[in-house]
Amino acid sequence: MPGRTRPIDKFATAVANCSKETSAYGKCILADYNNVTKDKCVTEFLKLKNCYLASAKKR
Amino acid sequence: MNTFSIRAFIPPVTRRLLPLRATRRYAVQSPGAPTIEIFSQQHKWMQKERAARDVETSRRVDYLRDEVASRLCERILDINRDFPQVLDLGANACNIARQLTLPSEDAPEAGPRGRRIGRITAAETSSSLLYRDADLPFNSQIPLTRDVIPTSEILPYEANTFDAVLSSLSLHWINDLPSVLAQANHILKPDAPFIGVMLGGDSLYELRTSLQLAELDRRGGVATHTSPLADVRDVGGLLQKAGFNLLTVDVDDIVVDYPDSFALMKDLQAMGESNAVVTREKGPIRRDVLLAAEGIYRELHGNEDGSLPATFRLIYMIGWKASPTQAKPLERGTGMFSIKDYLEKGRVGGGEGEGGENGGESK
Questions:
Q1: Domain boundaries, chain A
Q2: Ranges A15-29, B19-33, B67-81: which has the least confidence
Q3: Where do the domains of chain B lie?
Q4: Under an 8 Å CB criterion, which residues of A touch B?
Q5: For B227, left (φ over 0), alpha (ψ -120 to 50), or beta?
Q6: Contact B250, B233 (CB under 8 A)
Q7: H or E, element range at B196
Q8: Are the C-beta atoms of B244 and B181 separated by less than 8 Å?
Q9: What is the CATH number of domain B8-321?
Q10: How many residue contacts between A and B have a Cβ separation below 8 Å?
Q11: ipTM passes above 0.90
Q12: Helices A7-16 and B261-271: crossing angle, nearest 10°?
């Protein structure tokens, strides 16, 4: 829709600034993706989330 | 027991949003096994309507449907006969009709692909999507009738009406596939083909697995985000059960690269192909899960150039309605020579032993 940025677009641009954290989190899950339990990669995820939050706040 | 029905007082658009069981008040005894509702038809209709309202975006994401419709049209060209009456079942935005007005890529000088097609009837539940391209020039180049049908599960046509039934990328939202295929068989004239293509098997497995892993890690459980799909092995059985003969089933993978997983999900939504499973989790996917899924998608499936591939597995099916004049397999034990001898002869002679008969395409 013109004249309006969709929330998903804002989300996508904010996440795009955190490629290092995204890849670190993905690697952590992939290290043993047959045995994933809840909060297996919680430290990597929190890093990613903090980066996203900071990046989203900037604009 | 409440026998009073307020159905007549509900405005038509709202009525379509309500589940059928909320408004239907008459007693029915359905023969045979009860139909299991996997996909919510109301929700699917709503998604298609919403998607088609945004005409520009909706046209932009037609790349998949146009490509698949084009490949389907090539298959129609393989059959050497005229089709005065054709039904396009689940027409979306009449993609098949538009592709039929374009010439074939193999023979651009031969004219439009639909020259042997008389009239094409496009049946679709969502009227906004169906009439989206009603003012484009291709409408005058092919005789096209648009039919808005109340539900995609019941085909409101007389028996022996059509010379071919086509279907492109809509059968994967049908709950009772055996019934719809049997109805398609019913409305075909004898010795007429059904040519369909549906998403199946491993379609979008990248998205499916990343969302599953992300939800496992973030929430400790898995919710349904992608539809269950028919497998290639099932399709042959389904067609046979519906009464089709001389079956041809084949598989084609289209891999589309996206910049990120959000672009893929946005495009799926704009196509009107979002999740419509009845038991889906209501409400949007949580941002935590989206964030996690993006990372997993990128690491698990991502290309080296940073794009994310999404696989669409297309199952093409061709079946012919039975007719006494049709070619039939010979009876057992009537073979006059051994195929073993034939194959061995080919091998000794050094030639390519073409033993098998290509039965399906020989019409």
A1: 7-58
A2: B19-33
A3: 8-321
A4: 1, 6, 8-9, 11-12, 15-16, 21-23, 25-27, 29-30, 33, 36-41, 45, 48-49, 52
A5: beta
A6: no
A7: strand B193-199
A8: yes
A9: 3.40.50.150
A10: 73
A11: yes
A12: 160
